[in-house]
Specification:
It contains 14 helices and 18 strands. It is α/β, with parallel strands linked by helices. The protein folds into two domains: 109 residues, Roll (Urease, subunit C, domain 1); 305 residues, TIM Barrel (Alpha-Beta Barrel), CATH 3.20.20.140. Strands 1, 2, 3, 4, 5, 16, 17 and 18 form an eight-stranded mixed β-sheet that branches. Pathway: Pyrimidine metabolism; UMP biosynthesis via de novo pathway; (S)-dihydroorotate from bicarbonate: step 3/3. Its cofactor is Zn(2+). Pfam families: Amidohydro_3, DHOase.
Amino acid sequence: MKLLLKGGRVIDPSRGVNRVSDILIDRGRIAEIGRNIPHKGERVIDVKGKIVSPGLIDMHVHLREPGNEEAETIETGTRAAARGGFVLLACMPNTNPTIDNQDTVAFIHSMTKKKGAARVLPIGSITKGLEGKELAEMGELKGSGVVAVSDDGGVIHNCDIMRHALEYAKMLELLVISHCEDETLNIDGVMNEGYWATSLGLAGTPTASEEIAVARNIRLLELSGGALHIAHLSCAGSVSLVREAKKRGINVTCETAPHYFTLTDEAIKEYNTNTKVKPPLRGKKDVEAIKEGLSDGTIDVIATDHAPHTPEEKEVEYELAPFGMIGLETALPLILGLTREGVLDLNEALAKITNNPARILNLDGGTLKVGSTADITVIDLEEKVIVKKDSFQSKSRNSPFIGWELQGMAVLTICGGKITSMSDQVKNKLCGRTK
Ligand SMILES: [Zn+2]
């Protein structure tokens, strides 16, 4: 089936393109890009005044299937992704069973094929059962198609195991993604250590917990070689460490998540458990440093760390609630907020959710090059939405942004040439009605 997107502003950071063009999609691929492509009976969608971006990529999500289908499934998680403008997700291995074997990888592939509204690329675990003790069969995992390995959720505390993981992954040309928090320093911490933790009477986690793990992993990477990607940076010290390592030519990349540049630890003052994340929300200075890191290119990627939890799990005392918030359906407007603030321009912002994660994961994606898979996200920069508890596609509702008015939404998501999400605005236009 052919589809013609008419008159949008095409921004493709992978090729430095920013101009008004039509895009013709044919048999799941981008067939042609140019001004005034004549239409010959194919379906036409008018996207004038909209941004046409390569399909968005989120390299850090938790889809909970297998094991906790109460909170999310591959079907609902990918639907949430499509609604949020994402076409490609890399999912973390902390499922039950863990993604530490080829059968679980095969299960995720087959569920995605059956029910997925986005492509899902599994990330295998570094250690068996995420226990931090014995390395998983990385060769087998690589063979079955994982895009990286990670023990996300916690750090591998044993330096020797982490060193061997990096060496082994290097041999297999696998990316290692590391959650950096030395928990021997914050075993009871539930929020950032500082004024708000003291005034709320909650146990704090110092930023040093993260910085120590970042510094150690960069040092181990120097020893081993290979490639390391540091997940969800939250504080100024980590940004400085990565910036300095990159200056020295070390092969390290990193990401942050929208909540780390949008919220501070003050957001916890109502004890809303949806603000409880790992690493925790930090103070103002850290938020400023994260923005600086995004702006100067130290932080390569923005990923959601979408972490669904059921109301039963979250509606408990702050100390007892699990860590994590959902993010797929609120990420794009929060990222676009950075362009309105002047932290990033539109090209830079989109690069962090298209081209950069594609490059780091070595994927054939994140581009609108002619001949590539037709993964496209159409964005309305003006569209405003009030986030409502009942409007999520995700099975979970653990978002601290409920009640917020957000601006800049995906109005059309196309994955492999297929429409996976379309807003009412676009639907009405297609039927010839006006808003
Ligand atoms: Zn993590």
